[in-house]
Amino acid sequence: MSKIFKLKLLTFLVSYLVLPVPCYPDILEEIENRFVEIHDRVGPSVVSIERESFVSAFEIDKEDLFKKFGLPLPGPNQKTPSEPEPSQPKIKQKVIGTGSGFIYSKDGYIVTNNHVVEDAEKITVKTFSGKKYTAKVVATDAESDLAVIKIEPEEELIPVTLGDSDKLKVGQFVAAIGSARGLEGSVSFGHVSALGRENLRDLQVQGLTFQHLIQTDAGINLGNSGGPLVNIKGEVVGVNVALMMGANRIGFAIPINTVKQVIPQLIEVGKVSRGYLGVAVTDVDRFYTALDLPEPRGAFVKKVQENTPASQVGLQVYDVILKVEDNDIENAQDLVNTISSYQPGTEVRLQVWRDSKMIPFTVVLGERSLGVKNTTIRIKPKFFGMELGELTPKERERVGLEEGISGVVITSIEPGSPADEAGLIPGDVITEIQKKPVSSLEDAKKYFTELASQQKPILIKFKRAEQDHDITVINLTE
Q1: From 141, 145, 217, 283, active-site residue
Q2: Which of 470, 465, 472, 469 lies closest to 434 in space, CA to CA?
Q3: Could you confirm whether 202 is annotated as catalytic?
Q4: Could you tell me what percentage of the chain is helix, strand and coil, using 3-state DSSP and rounding each to the nearest 5?
């Protein structure tokens, strides 16, 4: 954007507050023309994607149709493929969904979302000219929800210009372009509402591992997925990915700098290589006082996977990872994003908080895969209001407690008590209290009595049936 245009825009916005709009028709028209130019510049690079899938009548419900295929939800009295008549044969039904994408290169590579093309039997791309092509999936990356598809063009394609999402600021103008509700080439304008959104729930798209999303109030509807989020210069700064269910004008886009990392790897090698540490982590905010941390910042280690880079260098449960190289780690998601941004085999320096002091580590990262993840787990904490019992052989077998580990079993929980708020439930087996192994009911009573008088948060390690060992904290000061 030129300095002259910025000055005119600022003059108009300030003057608009004190003078009638008709006093500045020229400025208003220039602003309007700039928005028109965005469509004229980017519109020809945006494509509509039709995805054809076959689904068993009994394998998908109406909410799945809404989320996965971008279809409208039926009314309460309408039948869906999951509600056939009893006499109806169990057959596969064809489901058509729509999405968006944009031209990445002149030779026909197109960027879209993984969830737009996932499990598709057939993909049809319609370009700005109206010509239709059958597309093939080149590669997908479920964790970033990005995909590359390809057509064999019979026309000259116009690739988009990629911007720099790191330079985005809250309040800047953006436009979302795509097939909103199947309406091709729809353009909606808005602003950058927030940056770096993480740990989002209630999205119509699930499974986004690398959440560090752009939030916008530009209208993102079903069908916009995979389309570009564009700045006022016509540069693509994000890939529209999700909307918040039940909310008005709260949409999200994947930053284009993430796309710049992922797409070349998908095209060249068919997959994305990411660094892997080998820890399960959660946010430290409810643990930091119990760990004598000066501030609630970092990634709290809940589990160290065996035979991983983390175990090989000696990382432990209760460690807090505060820094990777020169990058401060704010929370668990930040650690996942940071570690995954490095290539496997990279040697990185860690700063770890353990036993009230900082300890440096150097680790050579492994390779992350979908089967082995730096798991981010969000938990609830707190304590008292529970009854404990001795651990019997039957209880040990029920929860799958390993040989050589003892504990006590929770027999009841008072609703609304600190233990209830901690997320503990009857049947959980407490194996450690404030990092001390629990061998008997007497141990548990002794530890709890001593710690309760100190009025400090209490760390609890426990085992639940069919789950890994978990950790929570009882905050007695609340």
Answers
A1: 145
A2: 472
A3: no
A4: 20, 35, 45
Amino acid 348: pLDDT: 96
Of 120, 145, 116, 121, nearest to 47 (Cα)? Answer: 116
Q: Reduce the DSSP state of residue 45 to 3 states and report it.
A: helix
CB 259 within 8 A of CB 146: yes
Pairing of strands 173-180, 228-231: antiparallel
Q: How far is CA 372 from CA 209, 259, 305, 375, 379, in A?
A: 12, 22, 9, 8, 20
Residue length, the chain?
A: 478
Query: Among 48, 53, 100, 115, which one carries the catalytic annotation?
Result: 115
* DSSP code, position 392: P
Residue type, 107: D
SS3 assignment for 117-140: HCCCCEEEEECCCCCEEEEEEEEE
- The string of pLDDT tens digits covering residues 6-26 is 555 555 555 555 555 555 677
Give tens-digit pLDDT for 413-465: 877 778 877 888 888 999 999 999 998 888 888 888 778 767 678 899 999 98
Q: Are strands 436-437 and 228-231 parallel, antiparallel or unpaired?
A: unpaired
C-alpha span between 108 and 156 (Å, rounded): 9
Q: Judge contact between 168 and 195, C-beta under 8 A.
A: yes
Amino acid present at 3? K
Beta bridge partners of residue 67, listed in sequence order: none
* 382 vs 477: CA distance, rounded Å: 10
- Which domains does the chain possess? 165-269 (2.40.10.10), 275-367 (2.30.42.10), 387-474 (2.30.42.10)
* Cα distance between residue 264 and residue 301, in whole Å: 32
Catalytic residue among 225, 283, 420, 428: 225
Is the whole model's pTM more than 0.85, yes or no? no
3-state secondary structure of 271: coil
Catalytic, 145? Answer yes
- Distance from C-alpha of 473 to C-alpha of 478, rounded to nearest angstrom: 12
- Rounded CA separation 420/387 (Å): 12
CA distance 128 to 131: 8
Longest dimension (CA), the chain: 84
Residues 6+ apart with CB under 8 A from 106: 153, 156, 157, 158, 159
d(CA 331, CA 311): 21
Helix (H, G, I), strand (E, B) or coil at 364: strand
Q: Alpha carbon of 380 to those of 48, 349, 421: distances in Å?
A: 43, 30, 7
Angle at 379 between CA 374 and CA 383, to 5 degrees: 140
115 among known catalytic residues: yes
459 phi and psi angles, rounded to 5 deg: -80, 130
